[in-house]
Amino acid sequence: MEMKILTVVVIAFFLFEKINALENKIIIKINNQIITSVDLKNEQQYLYAMNTSVRSFTKKEVYEIAKKSLIAEKIKEIDISKYYKLSDVSDEYVKDILKKLMKSKNFQNEKEYKQFLIENSLDYRVIEKKIRLQVAWNNLIQTKYLNKIEINKDEIRKKIKENIKNSSTQ
Question: What is the phi-psi region of residue 103: left when phi exceeds 0, alpha when psi lies from -120 to 50, beta otherwise?
């Protein structure tokens, strides 16, 4: 008898409980990498949490920004994978960047920051991955183009002198 009552209560609970399910479908495919509707929703959540000015945008604008951001991220990830592994990025360097990020957002410690992420439905590991990706991307760009940069010190000195002369006359 008790088992029947328990079964009825459980069934009733599930019938009347508001169910929030997000259908996960592929939105974009880049090479063999995919961007799903869940990825897009998470990126929108990330944008809202990390940049308060995004809240003034329409949902459609935030959707487009998130989509472009994820596309750029996937392209970076594909290019980086040809040269590096994200795990090659130093954990200490990532922690230093995270500390700077926390400080810029006025968090006193990592626990407070992690609580903020939980409140905004964000995963700490996702933030860490974004940082690793950006660091690896910066390293890739630097190694690819560093030897192609030419600095003409004489021209720079000349421009500085012109700027000083123009600013002093003003």
Answer: alpha
